[in-house]
Structures are given as structure tokens and as C-alpha cells.
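User: Second chain of the day. Same drill as before.
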Amino acid sequence: MTHIVHAAAEDIRSEDSLQLIKELSEELGLLYGGDGTAGFQLSDVEVPRAAFIVARIDGYPVGCGALRPLDETSVEVKRMYTRSGYRRKGIAQAILAEAERLASELGYTNLKLQTGPLQPEAAALYERVGYYRIPVFSGNWDKVLAYQKDLVHEKVNVTHEL
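Assistant: Same format as last time:
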């Protein structure tokens, strides 16, 4: 049976959003220690030109991601997560596609993100969908893999005949 993944911006304080963030933080805490939040606050995406994305299959929340503004041209992808039973089914790609669409709509020219070395599947996904390695841009942890993807904005070429 084929299921359609629907990823869209939602309220970060909804019950589903909070549960997904909690699950991600617990998983990252087990992997890397600490509380697993990586310094992320809900308020990080309750600002202009930010968003929180929830992916759903048949209405059931299966993953999430966030867009946190860095500056006028760059936005950071945070809180990328897919529930374990739904991994390798295109959920993260759907979240990233929606993040890229929203980032473009919000006027950004690139997306940046960071992941850890204990998440090789995440790093492989980012590289597969066009993200390339860059120097660490946030935080002081030396075991970070940082990535960027540049958005291509369609330029309309208007010619006037005289």
C-alpha cells in the first residue's frame, strides 16, 4: 500500500509538534549525551521568516523540521526528525523539500544545517539531495558536520521590443 507524505508548516506548540520535538531530543540525548536539544528553543521559530514543518501520513505525524533565520539570506534547518518506524520512506526528503520551498518563498538564498557524526544516514541524505559541506557555523562543539544548499531563484528575463 502506498502512502502519501504531506509536509507543511504547523504550529510549533501543537501537541503533535511538541511530541515530535520531545522524541528527537530524547534520541539525540541518548546518542550524544545532554538533553538533546542542541540549544533549540521553541521561540527560535516563533519569529518572522521562520517555520516549523510536520510531515504526516494519513494525518498521523511521522516527522518534523524547523527553519530558523540566521541572517537576511540564510536560514538554518533544525530539528530534523523522522519517527523510527517511518525511516527510509521519503519522510525526511519531503520535510527538506518543504523547507526549501518555504525558504525560497521567504526570500532566503541558502539553507544551512548541522548534524552529528553519529548520524551517518542523515549526512548521506543531505549530500544526496544537494547539500555540500561547509565550516561549522554555530556552536562550539567540534564534532559537527555542517552543510549548505543554495537555492536557485528563477529569474524572469524580460525583453522589450522597440
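Confidence is low (pLDDT under 50) at residues 155-162.

User: Great, on to the next one.
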